[in-house]
Write a structure and sequence with these properties.
Length: 157
């Protein structure tokens, strides 16, 4: 440690001025460092508060996501149960329904056509456009059934 009293007694006036100037400069440097340190502490404290708020927002978001996930899982389970019930009902209905033969299908396709030759011909053209074998949904067997039914209905007129 520096013994300042001894320095004051031993030094000349010029050396004392230099020592005083050095002390003043050192004091200013320390005050400046202290000020910067306080500013840095304040900045770190604000940054810490900012990160704590961000963390709280993220944790809240994750909590909400987890709650939404649980809700979606419950809805998916309910949906799966409903789907199974509908599938069972549909399967039972399909078992109870009579099977359609080819002639029944053709009759069903011409079902709403009255004894009007123009209506019969229009329905026939529409069905041929839909079920012609060259089309995407075409079916050769079905078009043969349609042709037979059309011929039968024209003869019956």
């Amino acid at each position: 440690m520096i013994d300042w009293e001894e320095i004051i007694r031993a030094e000349s006036v010029e050396e004392l001025r230099e020592a005083k100037l050095w002390l003043f400069q050192e004091n200013m440097r320390l005050e400046n460092l202290n000020r910067r340190m306080m500013q840095e502490k304040k900045r770190l404290k604000e940054e810490n508060l900012f990160f704590e708020k961000k963390l709280a927002i993220l944790q809240d978001g994750f909590r909400q996501l987890e709650e939404d996930r649980r809700c979606l899982d419950r809805e998916r389970q309910m949906f799966d149960r409903e789907k199974m019930e509908w599938d069972r009902m549909f399967y039972r209905q399909r078992q109870d329904e009579p099977r359609l033969s080819g002639d029944n299908v053709a009759q069903a396709l011409f079902r709403n056509v009255k004894n009007n030759p123009l209506a019969l011909r229009k329905r026939y053209k529409d069905l041929v456009k839909i079920f012609h074998p060259d089309n995407l949904f075409g079916d050769e067997e079905l078009i043969q059934l349609i042709n037979r039914e059309f011929s039968r209905r024209r003869r019956d007129e």
